[in-house]
Amino acid sequence: MNLRDKLRGLLVRLYARRVEGHLDHAQVPKHIGVIMDGNRRWAKAAGSTAAQGHRAGAHKIEEFLGWCAETDVEVVTLWLLSTDNFDRPAEELVPLLGIIEDVVRSLAADGRWRVHHVGARDLLPEPMQTALKEAEESTAHVDGIVVNVAIGYGGRQEIADAVRSMLLEARDKGVSMEDLAESVDIDMIGKHLYTSAQPDPDLVIRTSGEQRLSGFMLWQTAHSEYYFCEVFWPAFRKVDFLRALRDYAARHRRYGG
């Protein structure tokens, strides 16, 4: 590392401390959703493979959760694999699934997070399903940040699954379709979502410069704030995270005034 890079790194750290020092913890979002985009483009720019990019992105997760723990965040939803990702070539999808399985096991072994899967589990390979079940069971007692791992997740799929679950529950209780139609409301559907009993995301962060949700938590993000960051996920820094929180707090205060 040359002198210029050292100086730049020092300035970034000093700036991050300054932003953190002015952060109002009363305005910190309780639930943050993250669309971790840009692993492949980061890898391409670095002359690396897609798998190396995904591994770099996986390593960033632990660091990110540490920042969240420092700022009183209670729930984090990480979008690790969408239902659309199953259309990727096998030579990319298979290593990616292995990397994600390693992430799940690492999160569970950490001891600080309560892991919860959101997504269509039946679409996932058996080893992944086993890893998710074991992670949820082994961390159920943890009194820390709830980490939703969105794997095999699609917003439309979630809503379809919620409606299906609601219909099956009504059938099992002997409720007629007419009575169900009369009683359906927003709260009833919400109880059948993957994130049932959790607060909706206050803030959604998407990296890589893309400015769209791509189907992420379509129901839950109706009133969320969005923060689009230009950097690729593996290069996401604490100062970028703090800027997102500062931006959220400013908007939150304005809308509440």
Automatic annotation (TrEMBL):
Binding site for substrate: 38-42, 54, 82-84, 86, 88, 206, 212-214
Active site: 37, 85 (proton acceptor)
Co-factor note (free text): Binds 2 magnesium ions per subunit.
GO molecular function, one term: transferase activity
Keyword line: Magnesium, Metal-binding, Transferase
EC nos: 2.5.1.-
Keyword flag Transmembrane: no
Pfam families reported in the protein's UniProt record: Prenyltransf
CDD domains linked to this entry: Cis_IPPS
Top-level EC class: transferase
InterPro entries: UPP_synth-like, UPP_synth-like_CS, UPP_synth-like_sf
Swiss-Prot/TrEMBL cofactor(s): Mg(2+)
Subunit structure, interactors included: Homodimer.
Function: Catalyzes the condensation of isopentenyl diphosphate (IPP) with allylic pyrophosphates generating different type of terpenoids.
HAMAP family linked to this entry: ISPT
Protein name as annotated: Isoprenyl transferase
